[in-house]
Design a protein that fits this description.
The complex is a heterodimer. Helices cover 76% and strands 0% of the residues of chain A. Chain A is mainly alpha-helical. Chain A has one domain: MetI-like fold, CATH 1.10.3720. In chain A, α5 (105-117) packs across α8 and α8 packs across α10. The radius of gyration of chain A is 24 Å and the shape is flat. The two termini of chain A are 41 Å apart. Chain B is of the alpha/beta class. Chain B contains 20 helices and eight strands. Chain B has a five-stranded mixed β-sheet with strand order 2-1-3-8-4. In chain B, strands 6-5-7 form a three-stranded antiparallel β-sheet. In chain B, α2 (49-66) runs antiparallel to α16 and α19 runs antiparallel to α20 (417-434). The two termini of chain B are 39 Å apart. Classes of the chains: A mainly alpha, B alpha/beta. At the A-B interface, α12 of A face α3, α4, α18, α19 and α20 of B.
Amino acid sequence: MSAARAIFGSSETRFAYTLLLPVSILLAGLVAYPFGYAIYVSFTDRVVGNDGQWIGLGNFHYLAQSPAFWAAIQNTVVLVVASDVLKLAIGLGLALLVNQRLPGRGLLRSALMLPWAMPAFVAFLVWRVIYQPIGGGLNLLLTASGIWPEVVDWLGQRSTAMPAVIAASVWRGFPFWFVSILAALQNIPLELYEAARVDGASAWQRFWAVTWPSIRPVVIVTTLLSSIWTANSFENVWLLTQGGPSDATIVFPVLAYFGMQTQRIGEAAAVSVAMLPVLAILVFAGTTMMQRGEDE
Amino acid sequence: MVRDKSWTRRQMLGTTAAVGLLGSRSALAAPALVKGSKLTFWGGLIFSDKANKLLAETVRKWGADNGIQAEVVMINQNETVQKVSAAVASNTMPDALDIGLDLLLLLSRQGIFLPIDDIYDSVGKAQGGWYKAAADATDTRKVAGGRTGLPFGISGNLLLRRNDVLAKAGFSKPPSTWEELVTQASAVNKPPFHALGLALSNVGDGNTQIGVLQSYGGRIADDTGTKAAIKSDATREYLRWVKNAWDKKLFPPGVTTWDGAGDNNAYLSGQTAFIANTGSVGIAARSQDPELFNSTLYSSLPAGPKGTVSAVGPNVRAIPKTSKNPDAARALLEHLAQPEFMSAYYTDAIYGPVTKDQAKFKVFDGKDAIHAGLLDLVERGTAPASPDIYNAAFADAWDNFLVPKMCQRVVIDNWDFDRAMDEAQRVTQAIYDKYK
């Protein structure tokens, strides 16, 4: 057996490798190289116009001294977890509702997709107007209806800024959950529900024993994707609060943007790289859960 | 630059004519312009559409007159940093561009721009000399071995006030001190009309507070420009001023998260009596709300116990070393500095003059309150960062909005002054340590 044959196996295997080669090169060039390069840059003092020098953990040491960095970690986790939980609740609830035979169901499904279809910057600018203390829709509604007589500075105080950002983010993002779960619901054979009914299962038991196991893989994938997107989302925070007030809403992408504003590319890359462990854990957990589901 | 070795007769005649035209306008030896060559110019978008159009059309006409294919790309000034950063990294810089002082100094240190001392000297000599504010702030000779920016306009903050509201309360003169500003604001403050429209957010307008801090004697760093010096009695006194105004509800709600247009919107919608602004609001009011425009008066920023700190912000034109057509770029910069263009440009742009002769333009004769204020700023304003040292660390601190964030700790988180100053001191020192 020749050495090449030992490594590449049969001609069929070699052919398979050959077919994979273009995609592999593409992935290496467009994904692996920029990814690796960003990690390398995070260990340098690179600025615009100067490649900089290797400074080891210098950028990370600087970040660790920054209150904004620690606030960004906390806020990113809060934003992702709260948004995902709310999007799941709303997306699942609406998907279950719209999966029933309702009049105007098609129209309702389309309408529910509108927030997702709207460009993000338009959506968040509209939310900024809604939240405005003077003349904003939310305050007008609350004061006019007598629910809350005083004007609230939704984005300008610590207690309400992050909930306001989360609410806007959930509004923009829930349709993705809704449509994904709805698609999964429509793939569940009706016979399973009929069998459960015959066995005397209650609505809750039918949901827990039939619906949830069927949509669980989709929910896991959706959670994974949504978490990554939310953790990397920039326009929601930037257009609403610029990370303020007092770092109450600062998140990693906004912190990285501030790094870019000072032209310190190495520092900005370090912020992005600092996010990686959290995202890696998330991806690992998601894929493990999916694998476990498949095995079961 | 690659040039055709053999020129046609038409090319030769055309180029000679173009060179002759420029030569008649300048004491400089006219650069050789290659007919048919391309030139890309990035102009800075400003609030005035008329000024933007004038700039773009002037560059195009200059290109047409000289046989050069001049492409003009107008860049939103809020995006200049990102676009230039990407262009430097990808080696796709234009042949000439408008930039602010921050970017000029930073990129000049990296050797990105060509020295243009001869153009700078020539324009200054022909136009009565440069204003000190423009000359000192843009001096890159120590960091770049020559001057790399040609100043074309000075911006900075003026205090805009609602004369109609204030006159009724008996205030006919602008506040001369920050304390007096609070007094006047308190007198007219009737929520939802909040009188003090000064941003305390993480945007450029929020950094106006650095000047207020400095006018109270506070500093970002010491005289060596290496050690943080935020924590001081002067800063404490400044924070007392902020907290006092905040507790009186003089700041409109939302000032801690205002975006770059926050003060503009508040003033234009009649929600506030005072803002510190470059004058863009006045220009907008002139067309959108003539009544508001007529009831608006302009003055220099108030003083603190240590005097007035009102930083000037020169804007410059520069030529990247990667320019494929540097001779044409040099000729363009010189052309754009000519009085014919600048006189028309200043009429609609919100800039103060950079040369002494420009101050004689009609627009600066005192009849236009905004331009009169800008001329006053040019003549009496302080150097960028002054009394601090304007170095890379200061620019970094500026971009991290240290002072607005310190204010937010006090007014949003209710931290005591010492705790807020301690945090700002630590963060500032960490920034300055990066540049040791």
